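hey so u asked for the seq, here:
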Amino acid sequence: MIKFFSLILTFTISIHSFCQSLDQLKKDSDSPIVIYNKSSETKYSFSVDDKTKTIQAQETKLDQIQNNTKEYLGYKNRVYYDDFSKVHKKTVLSKATDSWNCFHPNEEDGIFISGVECCEMTKILNPKQFFTFGYTQDYSDAKFLTSHYFNPGYPTLEYEVTFRIPNNIEIELKEYNFDKAKITKVIKEKGNGDKIITYTVNNFIPFKGEKDMPGASHSIPHILILTKYANYKNEKIQGIENVQDQYSWYASLIKGMSNDKNSIKTKSLELTKNKSTDADKIEALYSWVQKNITYIAYEDGIAGFQPESCQDVYQKKYGDCKGMANLLKNMLNSIGYDARLAWVGMNDLRHDYSTPSLSVDNHMICTIQLNNKWTYLDATGEFNKIDQSPYYLRGRQTLIEDGPKYILNTIEDTWNDQEEKSVFSLTFSTSNLKGNVTKTIHGAYKQHLLTEIQGQPKDIKELVFRSELSQGNPNLDISLTDKQVINKEQPTTLNGEVTWNNSVSKFGDKYYVNFSPLMKQDPYDKDRTFGVLLGLKGIEKIVTQIKIPNDYKINNLPEDIEIENKYYHVSGKFKQNGQNITFTFSKETKLLNLDRKDLEQYNKDIKTINEEIIDNRIIITQ
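ran it, structure tokens below
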């Protein structure tokens, strides 16, 4: 049987550096070395096209690949490109047959879900076979070559990246996350002022993925390639030197569109005719786009940066973020509101507009001033509210159109409206705890839940609701009541009757009673490479109220706990009022990305919560 090993050029590679030898590579890998690169070379060069007066770039890739087994293996290598880059050459030095196919990888029902295309090399490797594979990729405009991530895909003895920068082109290379690899850097300057900058790493071990790993730009060693300008024949050829350059290019794409506001004005007036306030009118149009335009995350237009016209999205009833934002903007414009487009990078991105580059934003929204404050409208999320900025954009810079200029603003990073709270009202018996549970969900927690159940059949929705009420604890048997409140405008409220099995144990004359439905959390691997993505900013509360019959005595309550640092604040507090016990657990997440250096303390805190709350018990005697 032929085994296939696929190389997909994504940004999920962890790098460790060791001495250069295959034996060492084998020793340090936690799995057998089946295919490896003897060497992997990437070379970047830059020039000015005399006809278009544009700075161009070329990437040349060459891998020397070895099958290290006595088996026949399948090898795949995908190279991605788009309208502004083309793969025009491949090099294969071996006697074996290979296949080179170019296609669109993300097509559903005739709709291109992404503007990216790819060429794929597939090859059967004979036992111990060695071959060389390479390609050249041309970028018609260097601003579309935004970054290089150190991602060889296979174990690699020597990985080398070279930038050849002519003396008349200003390019800045900004390095990030280099602490994850021993990357050597050598700069050579020729007599004419040209620079050759070479990065080298020896013995890469591919990364296998880590639980709750932050996004690639937060984790993987990479270089941002900032092509600023070129001096060419007494003329300055502009790249992206500052935010104004970046905005000017964006604005030129918007200016080149043909939006027909009249085609959507009638609908806009119809939707707002019975609305008296600005907020109500804006909400009416916002909700209509959310509910009636299907969001499809595809890229259409100039490299995915230019929206479709408002009339096209309106007629087709689907669009990507740009198309939906542009439709909403023009619907608002058509009835007299000064709505604008805004570019923004979601919070999985590390970079912002302090480093002008096309890699710092990946989303477009509509924005409008309401009550002298910018209001951010992202119609791609059906359950986003007009008075709540989408949670995945909070704290991010946004670039707002303003004619030939721009407005750079930061979306307020608050989370006091992001809360979920469960209240258990239970009665003690010698066999279990039994009663009712209510869960109220706000903000991002609510958006996650409603998105998860959207379009699902009744039985799946009920399964999700029971899991929410039980905190995922299999010992909690939940029977849903008919009092579920689920809509965009109000907090989501779930209700159920609960029987908490295995919550009471008896040893001698003492009953040991659970007080927290939380499940134990395993610590993270102490040897992991990256930090931890903590989830959502916000507050999670669980209140457990237990009524003890009068003929029983509350013998012991565990100690309260309090843990606080810059990432989170956790507290667990007991209150006794006669025969009633209330335990309140609260976790406030303040920062999303836990740094690797703080992982040891985080694991200690997990252990404390497990031992002092989840494994602990109230002691009752009769």
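The longest strand covers residues 35-49. The chain has three domains: 3-238, 243-410, 419-621.
lmk if thats what u needed
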